[in-house]
Amino acid sequence: MTTRPTEDDLLAVFTKADLGNDERLDLMEFTLVLEHLGLSWTRAETQDRFEKADANLDGFISYAEYRAILEDQGWA
């Protein structure tokens, strides 16, 4: 995705990457989101941002946490 995604785009990407259909992303699913959005982060950067985004420390990224990290990066 080369342009700034809309809210619908962000939700669609999140939903598509949510392979477990549990309304949360694990690290692998989060990586899929980044690839789809065209964000080029190293593994270390991805891990770091995943951990920072996981505000409640449950090991997963909720949609709200996902939106927050993308806003922090200027993508939402």
Folded structure, characterized:
By secondary structure, this protein is mostly helical. It contains four helices and two strands. α1 packs across α2 and α3 crosses α4. The mean pLDDT is 88.
Biggest sheet details: 2 strands, antiparallel
Strand content: 5-15%
Strand tally is: 2
Mean pLDDT across every amino acid position: 88
Order of helices and strands: HEHHEH
Question: Count the helices. How many?
Answer: 4
Rg on CA atoms, Å = 11 Å
Distance between the termini: 13 Å
Query: Segments where pLDDT lies below 50 for 5+ residues?
Result: none
What's the topology here?
Elements: H1 7-17, E1 24-25, H2 27-37, H3 43-53, E2 61-62, H4 63-72
Antiparallel strand pairs: 1-2
Helix pairs in contact: 1-2, 3-4
Question: What structural keywords apply?
Answer:
two-stranded antiparallel ribbon, mainly alpha, 4 helices, single chain, 76 residues
Short description:
With 76 residues, the protein is mainly alpha-helical. It has helices spanning 7-17, 27-37, 43-53, 63-72; strands at residues 24-25, 61-62.
